[in-house]
Amino acid sequence: MKKNKTYLGLIFVLTATFGGCRKDIPVFSTESSVYFEMYSPKLGVTELIDTTQITFAFTQENIKDSIVQVKTKITGLPSSQTRYITARIDQKESTAQEGIDFEPLQEKYPIDPGKVEIDIPIHLYRTKTLQQKDLLLVIKLEENEFFMLNMWNSLNVAKEKVSYTQHCIVFNDIISEPPTWSTKYYYWGQFSRKKLNLMSELTGFALSKLTGYLSVAQMRYVGTVTKEYLDMMSAKDTPVLDEDKSLMVMGHYII
User: How many Cβ atoms from other residues are within 10 Å of residue 252's Cβ?
Assistant: First the structure.
């Protein structure tokens, strides 16, 4: 399978609760420690997080995967030698399946001489399962010959505990009928994911734009272009069927 590696926008973040709390990150230590350091993607907000949520829902159907970069740092002084970080997937806590929903992690991740941080790439696959439910991927750091796990939790702005040694990724591909569809119904008819993707393909409008607020002129334009295509396919005896196997039609404002 050809892989289109597209970095999806982060949608929102959650926090998880773990035992213990450490607020200060030591820069120098007798023992080097490894920890995750991820921050909220919200504009203007600098807040430590331990869970990231992303969605494929508003990307084109030809995008089949995504990579989430998990920022990983070490305490103490840089080394003149290459050192390695080890991480694993918690199979009991995760609902995503290795090799099906995500690419297996490497056995170890190198930190080059003089460096104190790396990004661990988490490669997610866009599967049909994501259209039905969220999947959870739990990544945990492990101690090894180079690094200890001396950093456990911190507090975020809301005074919630945030883990330094575990990061969760919640991902899906769910598109439900947006609240704005009620204003579009008479132009576009019944909502379906298939119709939404077809309108995007025909008009070049992004899915996020089609599910947002549009002017009457824009709604009429999208409806007209789509209806012309549907009529053309019906004339060729290859009518376009919707997800429920009924004939795909537009709203009655589009003549």
Answer: 10
